[in-house]
Amino acid sequence: MKMKLNFKNVSKGTWVRIISLILLAINQIATSVFNYQLLPFSDEEVYEGVSTILTIILMVVNTWKNNSFTEEAQEADALLKQKKGA
Question: What is the pLDDT of residues 21-74, one digit of tens each?
Fold first, then answer.
């Protein structure tokens, strides 16, 4: 059975993931095999950058989510779940 590729209907997300994977593979090979650093960042800078990005993402997610600490808010959550049928 021969597979027929259809590049017209490939989503943008798929292209971004594939291209990112290829770029990361090229960087990894250049760093590991050829001992050549393509990205001009030290390990410490990468660590700080990733840590900062993850902190910002978690701050946004935790702020956006409904955090019910008061008794009234918890009762409202229970009522909402009941209304939704969950």
Answer: 999 899 889 988 998 888 788 888 989 999 999 999 999 988 877 778 888 888
Cα–Cα nearest to 24, from 10, 16, 65? 16
pTM of the predicted structure, to 2 decimals:
0.48
**Helices first, then strands: H and E counts in the chain:** 3, 0
Side-chain-side CA neighbours of residue 32 (13 Å): 6
Question: With contact defined as beta carbons under 8 Å apart, do 74 and 68 qualify?
Answer: yes
Contact of 21 with 9, CB cutoff 8 Å: no
Longest CA span, the chain = 62
Distance, in Å, from the CA atom of 62 to the CA atom of 16, rounded to the nearest integer, reads 27
